[in-house]
Amino acid sequence: MITAADPLLTVRDLRTHFFTGAGVVKSVDGVSFQVRRGETLALVGESGSGKSVTSLSILRLLAASGKIVSGRIEFTSRDGQNRDLTRVSEAEMRTIRGNEIAMVFQDPMSSLNPAYTVGDQIAESIMLHRRTRRREALEIAAQMLEKVGISGAGCRIRDYPYQLSGGMCQRVMIAIALSCNPSLLIADEPTTALDVTVQAQILDLLRKLQEELQMGILFVTHNLAVVAEIAHRVAVMYGGRVVEDGWTSEMFRSPKHPYTRALLNSIPAIGRHPARLQAIPGNPPNPLTLPPGCAFEPRCQYAIAECSRAIPNLVHTGNEHWVRCIRHGSL
Amino acid sequence: MNEPLLEVKRLSKHFSGRGGAQIHALTDVSFKMQPGEMLGLVGESGSGKSTLGRSILRLLGPSDGQIIFNGIDITHLSARDMRPVRRQMQMIFQDPFSSLDPRMTAGQIVSEALAIHKLVARANRSARVADLLRMVGLAAEDATRYPHQFSGGQRQRIGIARALAVEPAFLVADEPVSALDVSVQAQILNLLQDLQEELTLTVLFISHDLAVVKQLCQRVMVLYLGRIMETAPAGRLYAGPKHPYTEALLSAAPVPVPGAKRSRTPIGGDAPSTLHPPSGCVFRTRCPYAIAECSQVVPELREVEPGHFKACIRDVL
Questions:
Q1: Range of A309's domain?
Q2: Residue contact A165–B210, C-beta within 8 A
Q3: B266/A200 touch (CB, cutoff 8 Å), yes or no
Q4: CA A74 to chain CA mean position, Å
Q5: What is the pLDDT of residue A2?
Q6: Residue A2 forms part of a structural domain
Q7: Cα angle at A121 between A119 and A124, to 5 degrees?
Q8: Residue from A261, A235, A278 nearest A1 by CA
């Protein structure tokens, strides 16, 4: 997947497998996509599709049983150097994590340390990556809180997480993530634990900060409505692979993969109310026992015999749109 | 109008917190449900949705107010007197992983209530269980399998079969699809819709997802900090909300159409704590239309159009 405009992160045919007692779990088995500067790519999928394992692979934060078995994760750092993150040393990785690539997790309440003030937690990451004294770091921390829309930041830095609401904690997490001015932000279901009115605030905040800082965002989510609001591009994952990748508007207007199409038709939406929802039969695949061919074949209404023979390739259909389906042309 | 199946009158539920603090989970909630109606109960976390559902089923004792079910005031019925009523009212839970006993087979889970209420003779129980499993889209042979052998969606089907085993008239479905995979949710929503029509069930459908409620429910009730803000037929509520909170909720809800909405009426901040709800209207601290008077009077629910009620002293919407 090669595109011209300022690539920040290019993942090529990534495979991350987990070696467990029950067998090899191929959580990520051929994932390719690209995130460009100033652009948001939504990585969409259901539980077990491999979206979170993909984002953890990028930061090399996998559990002990997980291994990147092949593929490349090409990242262009601030100094213009392009490195394959699957090959850099752990020491080098530590200078990238938090500094060049930062992450925001789903549950802000459990991601923050309850025993430290939020100011100290923001200052910690600043002191880790820049040569600053604590006092200076706390000043930057206060500025960061201001930036993420927390008023009275000078006092708030002395608050403990329990004194803040879920939305506020997520703002603090974003402040920590952005404190070293990363060029790539990985946000893994950052609004899933939040109420809709607060979710709207956080999405607006991310959009505003992205415009200001021109960072690339990899937004991991299962929520298609949130994707429509925040993403420039979408990569849809199913059974450990990207099955479709393209511009958001095009993907929602004319999805090319049967899974994307079925998913968009199955979700209820305000402003559209069919007498019955078009449900997708069956269940998402078990990553331990993936079918030999297309992972969606058992649930696909367009499946033919050939679909179960081999894993289809991701093919380019024009306008930076890719689809992994042998029948995409005839649908 | 028929006799309502359920009538809730000025129901309040307080929990005692640490140091004598009072958590106002529900305050003065009143509404009726007609037989065969699916009512959507919408609100954010902490709004009291689940507390309301559980209070109606008497899984929680209400602090004040009345619950009248099928013409009987069940608010203070003893456990023994509640038992025949319980047969009439059942619940579907959010998490199909923790709401099924892992040591019981699907068949045992579904037939337990049949035995408790002595509904079906032992000899006929397995046939009844097979019918129930088929009704929710499972196979009769699934009766011998354990919960861990099923997917999330299938487990939720077992939960539904268990609820329907005693042929209840009234169901509380508390976020029944929130824990399920996106591609499985529609299956369960369709199943609930079909069963509700087929069995003319009266369903209180609790959800934080406005789109899901719109799909299933004829009428919607919006809860905020333990109080009803607005209640109206679904079509009306979505097309023209009359309460500022409903307007904010609808405009905050993302829609799966890129570039569809930038007409956001933003509301700032988070919901205040139920430990210290604001005086007057509980929404006033986040309301873009609040005036001085809003802090002084608790707005009563009033009918602004036939069947459309709101608790707001202003008429800006």
A1: 7-36+46-90+233-270+277-330
A2: no
A3: yes
A4: 16
A5: 41
A6: no
A7: 105
A8: A235
**Would you report the helix, strand and coil content of chain A in percent, each value rounded to 5?**
35, 25, 40
A181, A205, A221: which is the final residue of a domain?
A181
Domains: count for chain A = 2
Q: How close does chain B come to A263, measured CA to CA in Å?
A: 6
Q: Do A201 and B268 touch (CB under 8 A)?
A: yes
Q: What is the pLDDT of residues B189-226, one digit of tens each?
A: 999 999 999 999 999 999 999 999 999 999 999 999 99
* Closest residue of chain B to A278, computed from CA coordinates: B186
Q: How far apart are CA A103 and CA A98, in angstroms?
A: 7
Alpha-carbon torsion A291, A293, A294, A300, what sign?
negative
**How confident is the model at residue B317, as a pLDDT?**
82
CA distances to A202, A229, B96, B225, B241 from B252, rounded to whole Å, are 11, 11, 28, 18, 13
Computed over every residue of chain B, the mean pLDDT equals 93
A246: tokens are 């393209």
This model of the complex carries an ipTM of: 0.86
Helix axes A196-213, B244-252, angle to 10 degrees: 50
What is the Cα–Cα distance from A118 to A231, expressed in whole angstroms? Answer: 29
**Confidence at residue A4, expressed as pLDDT on a 0 to 100 scale:** 46
Q: What is the rounded CA–CA span in Å between residue A118 and residue A173?
A: 9
End-to-end CA distance of chain B: 29
Which ranges of B199-233 does DSSP label H, i.e. alpha helix? 210-216
| A228 belongs to a structural domain | no
Residues B244-256 have pLDDT tens digits of: 999 999 999 998 8
What ranges in B78-181 are assigned the alpha helix state H?
A: 79-86, 106-116, 122-135, 152-164
- The two tokens of residue A111 are 């991601």
Cα distance between residue B268 and residue A198, in whole Å = 8
Answer yes or no: is A51 within a domain: yes
Distance (Å) of CA A283 to CA A267, A300, A306, B105, B186: 15, 11, 21, 21, 12
d(CA B167, CA B173): 15
Q: Counting beta carbons within 10 angstroms of the beta carbon of residue B284, is it exposed (0 to 12), middle (13 to 18) or buried (19 or more)?
A: buried
Contact A266/B256, CB-based, under 8 Å?
no
> Nearest C-alpha of chain A: how many angstroms from B284?
15
- Give the three-state DSSP class for A268: coil
A75 in a domain, yes or no?
Answer: yes
Q: Which pLDDT value is given to residue A166?
A: 86
Question: Residue A177 is encoded by which pair of tokens?
Answer: 């993530």
Q: Which sequence spans correspond to the domains of chain B? A: 102-167
Average pLDDT, integer, range B74-93: 94
Q: b/e string for B156-178 if b means 16 or more Cβ within 10 A?
A: bbbbbbbbbbbebbbbbbbbbbe
For chain B, the C-alpha Rg in angstroms (whole number) is: 21
**What residues in A contact B187, CB-CB < 8 Å?**
279-281
Q: Domain check: are A162 and A243 in the same one?
A: no
Which structure tokens are listed for B115? 């035995």
Q: Tell me A280's DSSP state.
A: P
What's the average model confidence in pLDDT over A251-273? 91
